[in-house]
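Memo subject: From amino acid sequence to discrete backbone structure tokens
Action wanted: Derive the backbone structure tokens from the amino acid sequence.
How to read it: Take the token row as a discrete description of the fold.
Attached in line: The record itself begins immediately under this heading.
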Amino acid sequence: MPETAYWILKVIDWAAVPVAAFAFIHALMQRPDAYSAAERLTKPAWVGITAGATAALLLFSFASTGWILWTAGLVAALVYLVDVRPKLIEVQRGQRW
């Protein structure tokens, strides 16, 4: 593998870790009732999913044999960030006029 491609993969690997860590921290900080009000999984479920995603991104690499687990971790973190997080924020803010 050319050296440029190696460094591009390393940047992608390590850029994904803060994304998952942010999702995990955000999931921890939300009220438990907000998850049910947003009609999403429970708080313990999302904390577990985002913790597992963070661990997968830390332990595996996209350029290794564990790439499927790395990809699953990234997808789980992104689902939380683009689907669950906006609903939680909307529920906790209330209706905007």
